[in-house]
Amino acid sequence: MPSLPPIQPYWRRFGSFFLYPLSLEPLLACLGFGVLAGLAGAVFFPANLVLQLIVLVATLRYGYKVLERTARGHLDDAHVLVHPGHGGKYLPYKQFVVIAIGLSLSAYVASIGGVHLAMVLLVFLGLLLPANTMLLALTNDLGESIAPPRLWALIRGIGMPYLGLCACLLLLSSSSAALLGWLVPAVPPMLVGALGGFLGAYFMVVMFRLMGYALYQYHDVLGLAVDVGFERQTATVARPDPASQRAAESAALIREGRFADAIALARGELAEKPGDMMANLRLHRLLCAVPGEERAMLGHAAEWLPALMRNGRERVAIDVVEAVWQHEPEYGPPLGAFVLPLAQAFFDARRYAGAARLIKGFDRRFPGHADTPAVYLLGARLLIEHQRDETQARRVLAAIREHYPDSPAATEALRLGELLDRLAAAANPSAAG
Questions:
Q1: What InterPro entries does this protein's entry cite (predicted)?
Q2: Which one of 1, 97, 230, 282 has the largest count of C-beta atoms within 10 Å of its C-beta?
Q3: Is 342-433 in CATH node 1.25.40.10?
């Protein structure tokens, strides 16, 4: 049997990104944004500003939906509005905050280092902006999207093609205005606003589709969980993919409001492939999105999380736990053995609040558990690195050494306490003397 061709790199599929907004749903969305933009140009201040802001936010939200769905491997369909993922409800506002932070930093640098240094910083921040946008779409977390380690990990994972991606996005970002200027002489003045809104939305969708595809192209390197892997993606070229057909049927059921049938379809797929991560992920997302399915969502999570932990998929597991928390804030793993590795995964991902939430009250929920000293040690690290509370951290470290002297955590607690002492002495040499 001949091997399947590898996924095409983004620079060989460039033309498809321009065709994507011309498919039915993206085209209707762009036309709607154009109509709103034209309406904004026909009303008076301040209503026109409000409408323009609404158009911008709506376009960005749709763009983030396109980015997220493309990054998950959905390359041959356009059902974005009905997709039950997070879809970026607040992502445009988080994007505005990121831009405001960048401009504020540049202004501060200009005040102390001059305009030229500020321009260098702006160029550098501009190179980071695509990575920030992609992280926002995947994590929906402002802090994580601007964390230098996460930004660097994404850029390093993509490698040199990331610079090409930045260049393409730069050209696309200026294409809307250039094309509008070329078309204005041939367009009635009353339609210029609508045309500008349509072109702005069109090129925005192209840019987000491009970023989503770049993430999908490197998802195995970046550790991104996708719905449609490379093998299934390329197999659809030669033959229909039953999973894709099932996904299309599920999307149709959701559009018709037949949520129970969509859930039954997802459960049927999972019954056929009980260990398949993508089938589990689809059912999980559907249960999270449909109101009234909280108990079913918790039941499925309780069955799926142990399998994820056993298979080393902690990053997927923490996403599942965070999704469950949106509906059940008091949720915690029923087995104590899963708490520490899950909390450690949260900690390694710099999601410190989630790690603290998991280990809170561990000794009361699981009295006498073997992981208790290690959980205390992780709590001390959270106090040091996240809350900057070294005083309380020292108390926790001392308790570990006192109550669990023979545990590996006690040795690490001693080392960590000595490190704190050395850092304190270095920061205040007079007191040390």
A1: TPR-like_helical_dom_sf (IPR011990)
A2: 282
A3: yes
